[in-house]
Structure formats: C-alpha cells, structure tokens
Automatic annotation (TrEMBL):
Pfam families: V4R
Protein name: Bacteriochlorophyll 4-vinyl reductase
Ranges for domain 4-vinyl reductase 4VR: 145-206
PANTHER family on file: DNA-DIRECTED RNA POLYMERASE SUBUNIT I, SLR0144 PROTEIN
Domain of life: Bacteria
SUPFAM superfamilies in the record: Ligand-binding domain in the NO signalling and Golgi transport (SSF111126)
GO BP term, pick one: bacteriochlorophyll biosynthetic process
Gene3D superfamilies: Trafficking protein particle complex subunit 3
Amino acid sequence: MTVSGGQAPQPGAQPARIGPNAIIRVGEALLALESAETADRVFATAGLSHYRQNLPSEMVPEAEVIALQQALRAELSIEAAGAVSRDAGLRTGDYLLAHRIPKPAQRVLKWLPPGPACRMLLKAVANNAWTFVGSGHYGFEMGRPVRVSIAQCPICRGATASLPVCDFYAGAFERLCQILVSPRARVRETQCQALGAPACQFEIDWRR
Ligand SMILES: [Zn+2]
C-alpha cells in the first residue's frame, strides 16, 4: 500500500510554507553542537539573521528553510551539517510529541504493535505533510522495512552531495517512531535527491 500526501491546501500561487520548527530547532541544534558564533554565521549566510533574536512563531516561506539548510552545508563540514540537521529533527520530534500529537492518540499508538502503530502514525503524518514538506510530496509504503519518500524535497533542494543530507527528516521520524512505534526504531535516508535520486527515501526499521 502506498499512501501519499503533502500538497498544501494553498490557494492560487501562494509560495509554499513550512512550520517554524525547521528554523527554530536548527538554531537550537547549532547552539548545542556548535556555538553562538557559528549559529550567527549560518543564519547570516542564509539571510536570516533577524531570526537570531526573534524566532518565527508562524509558518515560514519554504525558501527560508531551503536557504538555512544550504547555509549549514556551506558553513560546516558535511558531517557537522548533518549532525546539526539530525539534532534539529530530533528536537522537532520532541516538540511534536509535547505540543502537537494529542496524548490520547499517543497512548493508542504506544499500545498498538509496532506495525499497525507505524502505519497509523505515517497516515497521520500524511494528513499534516504540507506543514513540513512545503512544495514536496510525501508518501509511504508499509513493508520490511517501511519506506517513506519525499519527492521535491526542500531540505536538500539545490544540493549535490556525496552522501544523503536530509538528516532533519530522518531525525524527526526517528524520534517519533522511537517513542510511538518501538524504542528500537531506526531511521536512515537511503536515497537522496542530492545524489541524483528521483526522490529522497527513508527506511524505518525496528526489527534489526
Ligand atoms: Zn534527501
């Protein structure tokens, strides 16, 4: 079964927007793993210095998220940029668990066996995909392993790299799956548009 979602319910030619976690949590991760100076530099390179003092409280233009990810890769090594991006994804997962995913739904997911819980979680994610993939397209396919795909992925847009770079999504999915599906869940990006793949693909596995 393939389920897809992600096209924003946006009228006309409005530019795609993404939830502010993709900015706020990257800032937090830079402070945690790098330094305030590095955070200043990365945000300046992205043209987003104003967010260092005033964090966005509403959805931001997709172009800002793309610029911030490009700045991470420009200012840091690809490994360090990946670590920051992944940490930002984990923090986004924590935020969603604390503020966005209703507690009764979380109890149901934790009670279900991993397979059905994962299916229900990814279905719920599909309904909200437009808030985090912008103009991208989200889909998933249950199986061993479970596969999530994001075409026209905003995180790696414009990137050419020697390894997958969409650690932000891998981190967010991993945190959600570890809490709601199985503590053994691991998520890795196995195909990335930055390496020429037609879509970014993530594998979720809790059976290893
Ligand atoms: Zn990717």
